[in-house]
Amino acid sequence: GLPRLPRIPRALRRVLARGLAADPQQRWPAMDALLRALARCRGGRRRGWALALLGTNVALAAALWLGPASREPPCRGAAERLQGVWDDDRAQAVEAAMLATGVAYAEDARLAVRGRLDRYAEAWVDTYTAACEAAHVRGELSLAALELRTACLDERRAALGHAVDLLEQADADVVERAVQVVAALPSLSHCADARALRDDPQPPPELAADVATLRAELGRARTRLQAGKYDAGLRDAEASLARALALAHAPVEAEARLVHGELLQATGRYEDAAAELRAALALALRLDHPEVAAEAGTDLVFVLGVPLSQPQGAALVGETALALAQRVDADGPREAEALLGLGQVLAKQGDDAAAEARLRRALELLRAATDADPLDVIGALDGLRGVLRRRGRHAEAERLARDAVTLVEQQLGPEHPAIVHRLANLAAVLVDQGHHAAAEQELQRALEVGERALAHDHPALAHVHGNLGAVLLYRGRLDEAQAQLERALAIWQRALSPEHDLVADVLANLGVVAKGRGRPEEAEQHYRRALALYAEIYEPHHPKVAMVELNLGKALQSLGREAEAAAQLEQARAAFERYGGPDHPDVGKALDALGLLEHQRGNLVQARSHQARA
């Protein structure tokens, strides 16, 4: 401590005592700050003391600021704070566990995970060091603001530890999702955002330790969610929610409800998930907890709009979710995520023009954002490709499909199961353009990768079998087509509810097979089953519905039920025209079918009119 010198004024004594503090973090944050404090001590009887001190060698002031020369410089050693969380020993353990699974893509996954975890750890160290230097070297950051940043970084360090813990016990399922687990680690940029940190509700001091523990538990549940360990994650989330309710700190209750809702969604309990996400959204809005409100809103849009098939309600929530996302992350990945959800809902409603605008903007934001993960870009490419395909813009859809394949190969490796879906998507676009042989080639590659990497009844293989069945239809190989479609149907019916739209898609194609084999009665049954399922999911003018109506009309024509056939074909034409305008290619398909029907009925003038326009 400072020796007792009674003639030193009290204010000056405090300045000098801070400069000599034993704890470097309690000393003056910068030389300029020390000198300004000394300058304020001038005046009255104290002027002589202050001026004398200011006039001495600056080394004296430096000694007061830095303390004894033997002390460590401030803000060193951030890397040591990650010892035991992510270091060489833990890296070797993770790599050994992943390789021990023996899956075909383990080496690619190991390399991707190691690189991503190394980069995250380096960024954590840089962010921690920058915060420390801003407070203790440059004097730009108050100790209160530093405390907020440090608490945020401690949460990120805990999340990193949860991910590494799980990867050290990797099985084949974890290896499949390993890159996704790391990609989902919480953003470090949030910890450097002063405004965002101020917006985060802080617990009272007496609850701070309990809240920090509870947030760590929620982080573990989220890691299990990303790894596909849904049952274990749900148990963690339920226990955490019970503790949050007992703690009676509303902000962490909102966070717990959000994680619980996400895990309910992952386990297929969609009604329960929607209720929990609504509760999280309402509570976060009331508390002005924007990060949680934005995420809960975006999740709720998807649950309402896709699995629960409530697109109008989802669209209403979607605009609110987008506004919240723009508040917390304007022009960044969070806004892009909200745009993707809204785009999916609009596409489900059949409003592909509005969906395209949202999805295109999301893709632009993700491609421009420095902190966006490439895996998120793949999701945006998938969504936009599907919309453009329905709108008849096949060349652009093919480019997006190829971009998605390339990104999966770059980020996950050519043997990763994620490539299976993307190759199947690419094949569908090639079929649209009449490139049937090329489509079959892509699907054979998808099957080869899938059979090496996945269980024989994995849903990704159903996607391939279904698309391959459609290709074989076009190539006139009806027996092979039927076998592929029946295989897809069996997998989808086990993996999904029997009322799912993917089940309806396969039924529609089975109708085409039956029609091609001269069995119009069987075709009619398949088409009507598909339409009944679509009616629960899509608006009446949706292009998927219209395409099945078109095929049903042709089957009815083959059965000699011409009046019914005409009604179905006209209904399809009107739906296509409402959806894509009078010049959409699918309108031409319906007009062609109407022309053939009118020719069969002897109405030659009307037949010529339809076919000329077609």
**N-to-C terminal Cα separation, in Å?**
95 Å
**What is the average per-residue confidence, as pLDDT, rounded to a whole number?**
88
Order of helices and strands: HHHHHHHHHHHHHHHHHHHHHHHHHHHHH
Tally of extended strands?
Answer: 0
Global Rg: 31 Å
Short description:
With 614 residues, the chain is mainly alpha-helical. The protein has 29 helices and no strands.
Describe what you observe in this structure.
It contains 29 helices and no strands. α18 (374-390) packs antiparallel against α19 (394-412), α21 (436-453) packs antiparallel against α22 and α25 (520-535) packs antiparallel against α26 (543-558). It starts with 9 loop residues before the first helix and ends with a helix. Helix content is 75%, strand content 0%. The model is unreliable at 1-6 and 43-70 (pLDDT under 50). With 614 residues, it is an all-alpha fold.
